[in-house]
Amino acid sequence: MPICIKDFDWTQTSEKISLSLDLRKTSPKNVDIVYTNSYLKVSFPPYIFEAFLSNLIEAEKSIAQITNGNIEFALHKTVPEQEWKELCLKLDKKRSQELREAAILEIQQQQQGRDKQKKEEKNNRERFAVSKQIEADDISREERKKIIAKQKEDFLKEPNIAPLLKGE
């Protein structure tokens, strides 16, 4: 059973929320961070920090950075200048579970979107590489044809070959 972390520091500016958590001497490679526009979870076994944010953030612009046994978040507000009264919502177990499941679903959809985009980018790179290779092969083939035609022409122009071809 994970140990829930309730001890954290947070401040806000007009543009962002700064959040700091103590990693309790956990190695950074053992830290798992997941966040959406309204949910934040940091897992570092046997500890877990989970927050259902009281307002929305821009997850794409927000960052997390691990330094000196702490994890520092810079969460960009969706509505700048909005004053947050509290960082986390106080929810009962049922509502927490509903929001957690919704957040997990959102994370899965985001991951599927990223995976699809990566796959498309990879396919585009492969198509581009194949088209460039075909282009290079076409140029090489044309150059070989020109060389063969030139060699054939030079061969036929040689004086001691011409009588052999006429049958003399």
Keywords:
single chain; 168 residues; alpha+beta; Immunoglobulin-like; 2 domains; 4-stranded mixed sheet; 4-stranded antiparallel sheet; 8 strands; 42% helix; 24% strand; rod-shaped
Description:
This protein is of the alpha+beta class. The chain has two domains: 3-90, Immunoglobulin-like, CATH 2.60.40.790; 92-168. 42% of the residues lie in helices and 24% in strands. The chain contains two helices and eight strands. It has helices at residues 93-157, 162-166, and strands at residues 3-4, 9-12, 16-22, 32-35, 39-44, 47-52, 63-67, 70-76. The strands form two sheets. A four-stranded mixed beta sheet has the order 1-6-5-4, covered by helices on one side. Strands 2-3-8-7 form a four-stranded antiparallel beta sheet, with no helix packed on it. A hairpin with a 3-residue loop joins strand 2 (9-12) and strand 3. The chain is rod-shaped, with a radius of gyration of 32 Å. The termini are far apart. It comes from Meganyctiphanes norvegica. This is CS domain-containing protein. Pfam families: CS (PF04969).
Concise description?
By secondary structure, the chain is an alpha+beta fold. The chain is 42% helix and 24% strand.
